[in-house]
Amino acid sequence: MRPSGRQLNQMRPVSIETNVTKHAEGSCMIRMGDTHVLCTATIEDRVPPFIKGSGLGWVTAEYGMLPRSTTSRMRREAAMGKQGGRTVEIQRLIGRSLRAGVDRSALGERQITVDCDVIQADGGTRCASITGGWVALKLAVQKLMKTGQVTSNPLISPVAAVSCGIYAGQPVLDLDYPEDSEAGVDGNFIMLANGQMIETQMSAEGATYSRDQMNQLLDLAEQGVAELAAAQLAAVGE
User: Fold this and answer.
1) Where is the Exoribonuclease phosphorolytic domain (predicted)?
2) How confident is the model over 60-101, as pLDDT tens digits?
């Protein structure tokens, strides 16, 4: 039995509320159970120096956790003078995951920055950030297309992510914090809506895993990403 009482292949309740901020070109609040992340997308008429003049666009991301997003207060990274290694790793993951679903030539020479701020954490914050980040990105692109700044849709496919792991010897979908902290194996799976894989992060946390177990987790991840993609498309009106 999972601590939450969910079935092994059951996601936490997912909701995506769009247009939650006034100024950002795209925004949403994604809730996966008790993990809540605010995602905003900002369009800028510039690109990093290494692609300037190429005609290609760029999508990048920043990630952060609010001080009381967890059970005890964390110091703001700005107050410590630098970002932690975990933060840097996660925001790079979000950026390269979202870029995998973008036709950068169709985007044109502009940059979209997706900011993911964790309001409340209960496991799977990077997965929620990627999933909500795509919605914010989509809304920003819709504005570009509505104004005629972009004529061909640069978004190839929804990009979504979900965690899976081995908990109490069983493969489970969408780990919350009590499961994540006790799982013998946990992984993050980032995919396009059609099941094509972008990135997989799997590690043993005190127990090894077999090829069969890995395949079981991949099957669960495909199911979870399909459910998330449906929620994404519903949120953006497609």
Assistant:
1) 10-140, 158-223
2) 999 999 999 999 999 888 888 888 898 999 999 999 999 999
Indicate the annotated binding residues.
86, 124-126
| CA–CA distance, 97 with 129 (Å, rounded to integer) | 11
Structural domain boundaries, residue 56: 14-236
Instruction: Give 95: exposed, middle or buried? Use CB within 10 Å, 0-12, 13-18, 19+.
Output: buried
Q: Please state the domain count of the chain.
A: 1
Residue 88: alpha-carbon gap to chain centroid: 14
Cβ partners under 8 Å of residue 24, min gap 6:
40, 41, 42, 136, 140
How many Cβ atoms sit within 10 Å of the Cβ of residue 135? Answer: 28
CA 9/CA 162 separation, integer angstroms? 12
**Do the domain assignments include residue 204?**
yes
Is residue 71 helix, strand or coil?
A: coil
Q: Could you tell me which residues are annotated as the binding site for phosphate?
A: 86, 124-126
Question: Is 1 within a domain?
Answer: no
